[in-house]
Model the fold of this input.
Amino acid sequence: MDFLFIPVDDESMARERRKAKLLKQSAWWKNCLARGTCSYCGKRVHPSQLTMDHKIPIVRGGESSRSNCVPACQECNRNKENLPAEMWKRCLDGQPSG
Ligand SMILES: [Zn+2]
Done:
């Protein structure tokens, strides 16, 4: 399964973005936020500061599904951008903390 080379058309991207919007209103997502932890760096974050991140970005063929969406702090979300989660985790591991 190599998601990196799936060409994603605008229509699919728009569809997944709409799904993400709906997912954000679900009880499941509210539970994720209530935990208040970034799923990448593990930092405790206020729920209002958590963002929805796609482990496999939509632009790389990722879906707006429970298995592909995780709460991330704004810092991780910004730094990760369109990297797949596995690559981003490797970046995090390679950085000295602080
Ligand atoms: Zn984080």
